[in-house]
Each structure stands twice: as C-alpha cells, then as structure tokens.
Design goal:
Layout lengths: L2 H9 L12 E4 L5 E6 L10 H13 L8 E6 L10 H8 L4 H20 L4 E5 L2 E3 L1 H8 L2 E4 L4 E3 L14 H9 L1 H10 L2 E3 H6 L5 E2 L5 H13 L3 H13 L5 H16 L2 H11 L10
Parallel strand pairs: 2-3, 3-4, 4-6, 5-7, 6-9
Antiparallel strand pairs: 1-2, 7-8
C-alpha cells in the first residue's frame, strides 16, 4: 500500500458518533445515510460564523467517513434556512475591514467547495424558506427536493451585495440556465417550487409531511448502489465543467476503466447472471 493510501486508510473512521455543535447530525442504523438538520427553527434556521465553519469542516472530513455513503441536508420547523443571521453575521460585517471581509467570504465559499468535493451525494430536502446562503446550500447539493410551499430566493442584491456569492454566478446558470439565473440574482425574487421543478433546480416536489422520508428513501437507494462508482460520477460531474470534448471523453474513459476494475463491477455481473439483486461493497 502506498504512503498516501495508507494515510487515507488510517484516517478513515465511522461518523455515526459525530457530535455536531451547531446543527443536528444523525446517521441511519446501517450507517450509510447521514441526515444533517439546520436546527434553529425559531429563527428559520439562519447561519452564523460558527455554523459556517462547522459545515465547512464537516464536509471536508466526510471524505474520510468509513460508513456514510449519502447525505440528506434539511432544516427544522418547516423551513430550510433563512441564510446569514442578520444580527450575528450581517451587522458585524458592516464594521469589518477588508482583510476580515475577504476572510469571511472565502470561508463561506469554502463551504460550497467542501460540499462539491466531498464524495457522498448530497440531497437537499427543502421546505418553506430557502433564502440567501440557505439557497446556496441547496444549490451546492447534488439533488434537491421541495414542497409546494418552498420559496427559494438569492437575496444578496436586496442587501446591497452582488449576486456573485459563494459561486452562485457560476453554478446556478449551469442548473437553471443563464437567463433564469440572471433574473433571480438581479431581482432577488423568490423562485416558486413549481418554477424550480420546471427549471431543473428541484428534482421532485413532495408534500411537507413526506419530504424528509422521500429524501432519505432516495439517499438510501443511492447508498445501497455502487458506492465507489457514485463517487466517481460526482467527481466527473464537477471536473468536466472546464473540459473540452476531447478531454472530457478521455477522462470518462479513464474513470470508467477504473470502475471496471472494482469488485462491484464483477459482483453486478455475477448477480445479473444468477438473476439476483447485486450487493455492492464499494470496492
């Protein structure tokens, strides 16, 4: 085993016992699906300097999870997140000098980078208010589900800021298209759940009482699939944004060849030949 692989293996650990400080973090009985719940329902689950930092660190650390294969991100109390807390974040920012402001915006951007880089697919279960940085968290997820009551707004322009926040000007157009993204980022208006679904932002809409269960059901179906191959899919979805056709086709040839060398590929064939359901082990 190479030194790098040995270090990676040594750092692997179960996340079932992870103790979150600024949100709820629960892992399913079989350890494969983690549910992260933003948990300040009295304030519609706003974010603070501390919760941003913990989210960044958690998503970075999930690269070393030996158990978690999919993540559900949601909010408590019928809302997803109202974004940055007005009094705990926005007011202090008005008194900061430029070096501190840049440190803050880089830190919030690191949350998105960590979400995109962590190997587990992230499913956002979005109910009620999903605004500002909350909308960014939903955007940075791999899949998104909503309720009919969901309102998603990129509010930055309403507080005198650019829509260019935490990657929104680069990522949002790739999800819903340039013109639609420009409208939301210039106006700050709320996108309805039906608009979000028709534009490709939301993958599905469920009644509020069913939302979390449906998101967890999808997460379990992904987690029970070919885990290593799913991590490769997420990696390529991110990397191929900046590639030309020659590079992306070659990169996918290499990625698929690597997957063909896994035990899961062989197990899938053997299960098909035996007319039984495959059991994937992630290797």
């Amino acid at each position: 085993m190479s030194g790098e692989k040995a270090t990676m293996a040594a750092n692997l650990r179960p996340f079932k016992s992870y103790a979150a400080r600024h949100f709820l973090f629960e892992v399913s009985d079989n350890g494969r699906v983690a549910t992260l719940t933003l948990n300040r329902p009295d304030r519609k689950n706003p974010l603070t300097f501390e919760s941003y930092a913990e989210l960044r660190d958690l998503f970075r650390d999930l690269a070393y999870a030996s158990d978690v294969r999919a993540i559900v991100l949601t909010g408590a109390g019928g809302n997803f997140s109202s974004g940055g807390d007005v009094f705990e974040i926005i007011e202090p920012l008005t008194r900061m000098a430029m070096p501190d402001l840049l440190a803050f915006t880089r830190m919030t951007g690191d949350v998105v980078k960590a979400m995109r880089k962590c190997p587990q697919p992230i499913i956002a279960a979005v109910d009620g208010i999903c605004a500002g940085a909350g909308a960014i968290l939903a955007m940075a997820s791999d899949l998104r589900m909503a309720t009919p009551e969901t309102k998603t707004a990129f509010l930055f322009t309403r507080v005198g800021l650019a829509g260019a926040d935490m990657g929104a000007c680069g990522i949002l157009p790739r999800i819903i298209g340039q013109g639609r993204a420009a409208e939301l980022l210039f106006t700050g208006r709320a996108m309805t759940a039906s608009e979000g679904q028709s534009w490709g932002f939301f993958n599905a809409i469920h009644a509020s009482p069913d939302l979390l269960a449906e998101a967890q059901k999808l997460a379990h179906s992904i987690a029970d699939g070919p885990w290593f191959a799913h991590t490769m899919t997420k990696t390529m979805l991110n990397q191929e944004w900046t590639m030309g056709i020659e590079e992306l086709v070659e990169s996918e040839a290499q990625a698929q060849a690597i997957c063909m060398a896994t035990g899961d590929f062989r197990r899938a064939f053997e299960a098909f030949a035996a007319k039984r359901k495959p059991v994937f082990e992630g290797n």
